What we know:
Layout: H1 2-14, E1 16-17, E2 20-28, E3 34-40, E4 46-53, E5 70-77, E6 82-88, E7 94-101, E8 106-112, E9 133-139, E10 145-151, E11 157-165, E12 168-175, E13 192-198, E14 205-211, E15 217-224, E16 230-236, E17 254-260, E18 266-272, E19 278-285, E20 290-296, E21 311-312, E22 315-316, E23 319-325, E24 331-337, E25 343-351, E26 355-362, E27 380-387, E28 392-398, E29 404-412, E30 415-422, E31 439-447, E32 450-451, E33 463-465, E34 473-476, E35 485-491, E36 496-502, E37 508-511, E38 518-524, E39 527-533
Antiparallel strand pairs: 1-32, 2-31, 3-4, 4-5, 5-6, 7-8, 8-9, 9-10, 11-12, 12-13, 13-14, 15-16, 16-17, 17-18, 19-20, 20-23, 21-22, 23-24, 25-26, 26-27, 27-28, 29-30, 30-31, 33-34, 34-37, 35-36, 35-38, 38-39
Amino acid sequence: MKLIFTLFLALFAHSTFSQLDILSQKHIGGTNYDDMRIFYTPDSSGYYLAGSSRSNISGDKSDNSRGDFDLWLVKTDLDFNIQWDKTIGGNSGDYFSSMIVSDTALYCLLSTYSTPSFEMTSPNYGDSFDHGDFWLLKLDLSGNILAQKTYGGSNDDQASSILIWNNHLLLLGTSGSPVSGTKTLPSKGGDDYWLLEVDPSDLSVLTEKVIGSTSGDLFVDAMVTDNQELFLMGTSGSGISGDKTDIGYGGINDIWIVKLDAGLNIVSDKCFGGTLQEEALGIITDGTNLYFVASSTSGVNGNKTVPNYGSVDAYPRTDTWLVKLDADLNIGWQKSYGGTDDDLPYGFSLLGNNTLSIGINSGSSQSTGSKTAAFYGSSDAWLVFTDTSGQELTQFTLGGSLWDAGHVKYQRGDTLVFAGSTNSPVSGNQTTGTYGGFDEWLVKLKITDLSTPNHGVQALELRVYPNPANDLVTFEFPAVQYRDQYISVFSSDGKKVDEMVVQVGTGSGIWHPACGSGIYYYSTGGLQGKIVLQK
């Protein structure tokens, strides 16, 4: 039996996909605007949807808006059946940025323009209604508020991202404030990258850092490698000044990436772009190398070596630009995805077998530029999958007759989980419609055509305890993981009985086995081992 099991794992670990089919789809929302992101629960038994909502009680929303936009948090099972929802907000706009899911708490980061009201009890430090702050919420796993805090100065401060850093929280965004409010460091000039290292227990600030030039710099995303190097990605239109040592390429904006060491000291920085305009979307890592996605209207110039496909009435349109970098910010390869119209990046993930998943909000027709996938309406979710060498694996479109966008966030075995936004009626391959306005659109895609190219799987170390076990088993990696690590459990005859995930930004996960006593085998990232259950 063990030989059969080993061969099965080899196929599972090295398979990829070249054809996708829709398994199921669902929309979640109210009658106004609802835009959310998807996160696994700590035990991988369901999902949290967290985002911004302007809807009152309607559709799936059980509570009214507090002011303008609020945080809307929804808990579902693995089939997207809603178990509960919560609305949290103040008397003005509260815009969701990102969330960390730990074993005991949810840490939600927002940009807020509210003053203390409703669930918001922290001050607003902006000196006018259009000056926002960072708002950090610590919630229990049922969405109840445990603690909250705002961070900001007298001008506008916009939150973008939250990471795990040295067992603390790292809040990242853009600040235009001078020393004021909770901000203790001066601006470098205009808007800057603003970093706050925060104690997760009481949300107090441990370290603050400002990085910028004398002109405006807009922070967008960040990623940590296995070597505890932090890479910040944003957009800059300035020359050499302040912390910026790269003059750029003369366009409206370049991508500006800054590398920091474990002490948050700047190691290096570099610009990426051409002579027109680039806007940052996201950056991820496979542990060693970096991959970023941006929008671009530039052709082959600057350090961009791939063409721009979009052009309407002789005016360049936007393409999606994918670039691979090493840890020294040297370009490994780059790709451009677009048709004759605008194709803007929406989301970006690293799936199993080192597959890059790019979601593009596409207005281009089929068979134009590099687009081979279908086109259904004014703007679709165009999904592009590549390996980490830049080889395209497949393309797929999800969309109806109006506006649709999203990307594949997770992979569970041979099923992909897409999360996005839609305002299309039933049309194209959108079969759910909406409640009105924009809803969250959730789709499961089946990998139906398997092939076995030689994709490498990163070597991992893993502790599994207790073993033998009874009602729980801990899977523990030696370091915080840079991507979701999927752990499959099989019976002794090779049948898959369960799957769990150790989430990105954490180092361990707990499996609660529902199966009976016996010998089981686990597999993750090329590792396999035995678990004995004694119930």
